[in-house]
Structure formats: structure tokens, C-alpha cells
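Deliverable D5.2: sample structural annotation.
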Amino acid sequence: MVKADFLVIGSGMAGLIFALEASNYGDVVIVTKKESAEANTNYAQGGIAAPFAKDDSFDLHAQDTIRAGDGLCNEEAVKIMVKEGPRLLKKLSELGMKFIKNGSGTFDLGREGGHSRRRIVHAKDRTGKEVENTLIRKVKEKSTIKVFENHFALDLIICAASSPLDAAHRQDRTCVGAWILDTSNNILPFISKATLLASGGIGQVYLHTTNPSIATGDGIAMARRAHAKIANMEFVQFHPTSFYGRKIDDRAFLLSEATRGEGGILKTRDGRPFMDDYHPLRDLAPRDIVARAIDQELKKSGNKYVYLDLTSLDSAKLKSRFPYIYETCLSFGIDITKEWIPVVPAAHYICGGVLTDMEGRTSISNLYAAGEVACTGVHGANRLASNSLLEALVFAERAAISAKQDVVRGFSRRDSRPIGTESLAEIPSFEHGGKDFIESREIANKRYEIQRLMWNYVGIVRSEERLQQALKKMEVLKSDMDKIYDRCKITPALVELRNIAEVAILIIKSSTMRKESRGLYYNADYPHKDDENFRKYTVIDT
């Protein structure tokens, strides 16, 4: 077995921030199913929001966040995030992160949809990549942090309570690590005093997504199988502008919202700017409104895409501000300084996830979650642009400080004998007797079937009838997944397929629980908000 004080599952921004902080208190093991730099963080183009401008404030940032969240934000979480954000961004800069600065040495601040001020701290259009590289460099410098690349987390190791008192305090289930598939296909127990889920998002549940191929909802699926509380999975954010018709490593190429912040305009194929018809902020409206507007325009016209027009922007400035976008589009045959860019919405971010408190604690003892896998309540019904990396930064640090207490306590629990770590006698064994091999083509076909079903039935606009049809179809597919999983040899592709099916059902079930349209969630049978009978959270915990 592998033992550590802290086990981190995932190597995006949340996992690395947690690891760096936790390394001050004990030994840390990071498990990542790909190379350490492969994470959703790596593809974040826009930046990190924080109120640094003279005409900005904590209150204004909070107000914009809460407005975008459409009545569902946890205001305590929002206040914590906006107040702690500037300190941590400065700390990140001190770690070596090369944010773009003005001649005066202050941060160059961009603006994105939903923000009332310029407050996006950025590294041009490769902010996520620069953050990831900076944090990985610091992690490698720490002798108390060990990274296991190409290791796949299968399931959490959970021990049940041994006393009624534990159950009375909702301490009836404790996480003591996870089962990990190593590079030789051995299944090993990684034992820890505190475990963090930082495994990222769920974009690959959908046919069109800006997320990399690894974003298969693994952490949420594992937490669900361990009976942790999962909340607000109906709120899937579809980024309005991904490049139509071309993919890079199974993900749609994203055109940052910052392009519209700098003056980009959405147009129909005949050249008509259409966002005036949908919102007073026009092209800077919140993402849910822009995505639905594009969806509506496509349904009216029968076209497959609309255009993003950046040609009115200064050519030199455009190339300087968005060099990655410029070069990538040029490789697709589009010169964005002269030509319009064909765009469609794509699944981008999940606002729900494993329910946590303000310290990253989940409903399972010694299990924490941070980043996109977690639901802190910050985003409510809709994430404000560039708040995702900020949330990961703030709450990952808070989770590490809180998890320190688990390390101090060791493996003891209230009114319960300690859990032994010298053997796994007390821990249920990972049972898997599969001997057959499933062909990669069959896995790919089933994955595509789920993605297509979710895109067509549980996409930008939903309905009660189609949700029920989707649930029936997914339950059959999930049953097939379970049978295959029990019969066949475990491979990462098979586990990802199982997790995609698990997450798809969570999204559908959460959607059926919300009888209104709010933020990212739009149900044609309930097209209006219900401010009297609405759910603050749709929670699944059985």
C-alpha cells in the first residue's frame, strides 16, 4: 500500500494549491490519471477575477457574482471568495506566476460578460496553462509531495461508524483513502488521514465540450458511490462560443469570453448582430443568456452555427491580447483579424458537484473537495466568468488548513477505536473478479451513445418528457455498464465510461427535481422562475 497524511486526487489548480498548503503540515501524495499538467485548469483562457481596480470593490464583485447566480449563491461563500481572492492572487504572483502587468506594475485587467468592472487578472489567453505550470514547478520543489502520474482513482475507501454517536453526528462514514489503478494495472490501496477530491469537471458527458478528454466526472462519481451528498447537478454551463466543426484531442476549441469583453460581436450568418434582442448588456450578457440566444437563433434559422466577429478590433492588439486564439484559428484556416469565426455553444463547466461547507468538508468524514468537482454554493445557478479559478484557489487553501486537523487526530474517530493502517483487515476489500476484456471500440461506442443522448435530451433547453425519456435510457445504459464492469478487466477507459454514466444520471435526476427555469437551467415546461417554491439546492444523498 501507499500511505500519506494527505491524498490528493487530481492535479489541476485546486489539487496543487491544496498540496502546497498541506505540505506544510505533513506528507502529500498526488494521484493524477494523466500527466500532472493535464487538467481543465490548463485550458482556462480568460483569467482570474478579483477587485484590484480603483473603481472596483469586494461588494461590487460579490454583487456581480450573486446577480449571475440568479438567487442561488451561498452569499457567505461568495464573500469569502472575493475577500480572500486578491491576497491569494498576489501570493500566486510571488510564486512566479507571470500575470500581465501595465507599465506602472499593476495588473492589466480585462473584462468579461456579467462583470460591471474590468477585474480579470490574466496571462493573455493562456492563463490556465501559466497557472498550472507555475504550481507544478513549486510542487516539484517540495520533498514532502510525491506525484503519481498515470494512476487512476477507482473508488474511495470508506469505513463505517462503529458507534451510534458517530451516526448521530453524521460521522457515520469516514474516508481513509482510495483504490488506485497503477501503470501495471495493479489495484493498490492509497491510505490517507485526509483525502481531497480535485478531479475536475464533467464535460465529456456531452457530445460537444470544451473540456479535455479526462473530464469524465470521476470524483463526483466516486463520491456518489460512497453516498456523499451531491448537489445542483442540473446547472451545466454551456460556453457560448466554441469553434464549430473542429476539435483538438476530443475537445472543442474555446473562444474566450474575453474576446467579447474586448469588443467582439455575435452575428447571424447573414451578418445581423442579435444579442440586442436578448439582453441589455448585449454581447456581454451572462453566459447562460448568450448560450440560449445562440441556441434560439440556430433553431429559428436551421443553421449549425453563428459567427463571432472580431474584425473591428485593432489587428495588432488582437494578436497581442489573444495570441493562442489567433494562432489556433489560423491553423483552422481562419484569420480572426479579417474573417468571422463560426461558433456554437459547448458544455463547459458544472456549477454543482460534491456538496461542501466553507472549509471544503464533504458529508463524509476526512473527505474534502475543491475546484470544479465541488459545490461550495459560490456559483449558484450560473458561474460568473473567471470565478472558477478564483474559487479553486480560495477554497483549496481553506480545505488544506481544515484538513490539517484530520492529520493531527490521525485515524481516530469520535467514540470509535482507531482505524488500523498496518493492514487492510478492517477495510472492505476491492472486489473485482473480471477476466474478460472489453474492446476499446465497444467502450467508445457506448461513450458516444451517452454523449449523444445527453446532448439531445439534457442540453441547453430541456423538457419534462425528454428528461424522463433520458432517465429511462440512461438507467438501461447504466445497468449495462455495471454488468460490463463486473465481468471485464478494469481499464481506465472502462472506469471513465462507468463514471460518465453515473454522472449523466445525476444530471438528469437533479434536473427532474427543479420545477422552474433559473440561471443555466431552462425547462420549456417551466419557463419562469419560481421565487416562492424554488430549491436552494437539489441534493442527492441516497
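Annotation notes: The two ends are 30 Å apart (CA to CA). Residues 464-487 form the longest helix (24 residues).
The annotation will be released with the project's public dataset once the embargo ends.
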